[in-house]
Amino acid sequence: MELTNLLTPECIVANLKATSKKQALQEMSKRIAEVTGENERDIFDVIIEREKLGTTGVGDGIAIPHGKLETLHRLYGFFARLERPINFDSIDERPVDLIFLLLAPETAGAEHLKALACVSRFLRDKTNCDKLRGSNNPEALYALLIENEEHQAA
């Protein structure tokens, strides 16, 4: 699984304005709904249900909210760099400024886990996160997300 399989340039927001976890997830649900053709409310509800099981704020300013929709036919990713860090109930209690939302079909078992692992591996790299935090241009963010894989493949 590679990030290029999950992301398109339309799935990147460079300066998402949000003052709360709920607002960030609502805005991301709205934007990914435009890409997937799925219902915005259905996306938001699935993501919130997952958050109720435990926070997806994994620490170091990073959150990876995710969920499954039975009407999806493939996995989708959506990346947002927040304008200002927000409280996300993270495991380290630090505010979040990088969010990678992942949506998967209801039937995507191992594929969903592989995608989560891929996203997590990329965002655990401090250099990657520093580069993402240093850019406020969606095209540059997309290039950074994709560039890393091209280097690993070479």
Describe this structure in words.
By secondary structure, the chain is an alpha/beta fold. The chain has helices at residues 21-36, 40-53, 110-124, 126-133, 138-153, and strands at 12-16, 57-59, 62-63, 66-69, 76-86, 96-105. The protein has a single domain, classed as Mannitol-specific EII, Chain A (3-Layer(aba) Sandwich). It is 45% helix and 23% strand. α1 (21-36) crosses α2. The longest helix has 16 residues, at 21-36.
Topology:
Layout: E1 12-16, H1 21-36, H2 40-53, E2 57-59, E3 62-63, E4 66-69, E5 76-86, E6 96-105, H3 110-124, H4 126-133, H5 138-153
Parallel strand pairs: 1-5, 3-6, 4-6
Antiparallel strand pairs: 2-3, 5-6
What is shown here, in short?
This protein is an alpha/beta fold and 154 residues long. The chain has a single domain, classed as Mannitol-specific EII, Chain A, CATH 3.40.930. Helices cover 45% and strands 23% of the residues.
Main attributes of the structure:
alpha/beta, Mannitol-specific EII, Chain A, 154 residues, disordered C terminus
Within CATH, the superfamily carries the name Mannitol-specific EII, Chain A
- Structural class of the secondary elements? alpha/beta
Q: Mean pLDDT, as a whole number? A: 91
Query: What is the number of independent domains?
Result: 1
Total beta-strand segments: 6
Radius of gyration: 14 Å
- Largest sheet features: 6 strands, mixed
Question: Counting H and I runs of at least 4 residues, what is the number of helices?
Answer: 5
Distance between the termini: 16 Å
> What is the helix content?
40-55%
In CATH terms, what is the fold-level topology? Mannitol-specific EII, Chain A
